[in-house]
Amino acid sequence: MKLSFHKNYPLEQLNTFRISAKAKLFYEFEDEKSLIKTLKSDVLKKEKLLILGGGSNILITKDFDGVVLKNSIKGINIITENKDRAQIEVGSGVNWHDFVMWSVNKNLSGIENLALIPGLVGAAPIQNIGAYGVEVKDSILDVHYIDIQNKTKNTISNNECNFSYRNSIFKCELKNKVIITKVIFQLSKKDLNQISYGAIKSELELLKEEPSCKTICKAVINIRTKKLPNPNVLGNSGSFFKNPIISNDLFNNLKIEYPEIIGYKHSASHTKVAAGWLIDKAGWKGYKEKNVGVYKKQALVLVNHGGANGQEILDLANKISESIFNKFKINIHPEVNII
Ligand code: EPU
Q1: Given pLDDT bands bounded at 50, 70 and 90, which one contains residue 46?
Q2: Which ligand 1 atom is nearest residue 237's CA?
Q3: DSSP assignment string, 45-94
Q4: CATH code, 76-227
Q5: Per-residue confidence (pLDDT) for residue 1, from 0 to 100
Q6: Separation of 239 CA from ligand 1 center, angstroms?
């Protein structure tokens, strides 16, 4: 197999912020074998490396002076099942939402609350994607990856992934060291009906539906479509910031001044605060400056109104963080990877 890298490859259609930037070299891999072969090539010894998935969680601030490897490992296969559960092996390059729809159509429950999250299956464990009361960690059994340094195949169990809120070993010890190739999921044949999140209950009432994996999936799709911009229409990468975790003391002090502040118990000593509320309260919702802005229906989402470059979005993000710190004495941090 001969490797041919594309030169000066445009990345605009490969990131959901729709930032136009170029990769010095570009290659798309479709299986573990071609990935390992690429990693062994001389070119990789000299060049910086960026692994690109769905491009939905990155902000590209300049041209990439190295090799971009695009993940296109496909395939969804049931590997074992009994009357209660099924184990499914999914290629890391499969579109996340396509996998959610595949599972719901087979009446397999566990990830229906995570419908419409942009990105690929391989990115799901990295930041332990979550929405509407569910995190993907509860449906993952194992993660298969290739070690970039040794070019070896490895498997890591759920426990070893150190999952927590929007975090895992892949963002810590294994950051930039591995490429996820397959994820093994365990889904339930019985509907899990995870409807603790208020908006799902109200949407099901509106739809006049009883909870099931199919109806919850439909409710989530409706809620997300109402609240979050479609990147094909307006460039964005979902929540730009993580919800900050602060001490209960600071939260209780803020609550005196802002009784309507929104926080959720994180641990005995800490509270997770809705960053969208903080940014909204600081007056940023719907803000527009040249080609960049804050989405009018969800202040946690920054948008490219067309033609923005990554640096402009980063400048806006920094201005927002500074204003949140000045107003509430809370540091907010990007969820998005800045390249
Ligand atoms: N809020 C406001 N103003 C806003 C936005 C939010 O007051 O402009 C308030 C809402 O009214 C709500 C609270 O803040 O009471 C939380 O808002 P929301 O339910 O929209 O959830 P979020 O905490 O802003 C998180 C995830 C989303 C996920 C939703 C739904 C993070 C960083 N984001 O957002 O994930 O879809 O919960 O579960 O945890 C993503 O990661 O890209 C993403 C979209």
Answers
A1: confident
A2: 42
A3: HHSEEEEESSSSSEE--S-EEEEEEEE----EEEEEE-SSEEEEEEETTS
A4: 3.30.465.10
A5: 53
A6: 7
Backbone angles phi, psi at 123, to 5 degrees: -85, -20
Cβ of 181 below 6 Å from ligand 1: no
Residue-range domain boundaries for the chain: 6-71, 76-227, 235-338
Atom of ligand 1 nearest to the CA of 165: 39
Per residue in 231-246, pLDDT tens? 989 999 999 999 999 9
Average pLDDT across the chain, whole number: 95
Q: Which atom of ligand 1 is nearest to the CA of 113?
A: 38
Amino acid making up residue 233: V
Each residue's pLDDT tens digit, 247-279: 999 999 999 999 999 999 899 999 999 999 999
Best CATH choice for the domain 235-338 from the list 3.90.78.10, 3.30.1490.270, 3.50.50.60, 3.40.50.970:
3.90.78.10
Q: How far apart are CA 161 and CA 143, in angstroms?
A: 8
Q: Quote the pLDDT of residue 2.
A: 59
- Sort strands 178-188 and 85-91 into parallel, antiparallel or unpaired: antiparallel
Dist. CA 146 → ligand 1 center (Å) = 33
The CATH architecture of the domain made up of 6-71 is 2-Layer Sandwich (3.30)
Ligand 1 contact, 280 CB (< 6 A): yes
